[in-house]
Amino acid sequence: MQPIVNGLQEDYKEQVTFVAFNAKDSGEGEAIFQNLGLPGHPSIVIYSKPGEEIYRQFGIVGFDDLDTVLINNIESEAK
Predict the structure, then answer these.
(1) Looking at residues 3-22, what average pLDDT do you find?
(2) 19, 28 in Cβ contact below 8 A?
């Protein structure tokens, strides 16, 4: 997943803020995973600028799927 996320981060660096957490760090990452109710790695959660959750997926997600979610969200926020 990391290469996919890295590619998206490069493509959308001007429009999207990416934040990564490790669920197994016995610290902040683990607490965030628990608070969000995420089952483990890899998990992806995408929020809109106002903070609304717009996407959640557990497991491997393809570049095209995540790219579509980001494009749709950026376009809807531009309206």
Answers:
(1) 90
(2) no
Sign of the CA dihedral running 58, 44, 57, 29: positive
Instruction: Please enumerate in sequence order all residues whose Cβ is within 8 A of that of 55, keeping only pairs 6 or more positions apart, or say none.
Output: 44, 45, 46, 66, 69
Query: Which of these, 32, 2, 15, lies nearest to 69 by C-alpha position?
Result: 15
Strand partners, 45: 56
| pLDDT, tens digit (0-9, with 9 covering 90-100), for 22-72 | 888 888 988 999 999 998 788 999 998 888 899 999 999 999 999 999 999
Rounded to two decimals, what is the model's pTM?
0.82
Q: What does each C-alpha distance from 42 to 6, 13, 39, 51 come to in angstroms?
A: 14, 21, 9, 21
Cα–Cα distance for residue pair 51/47, rounded to 1 Å: 5
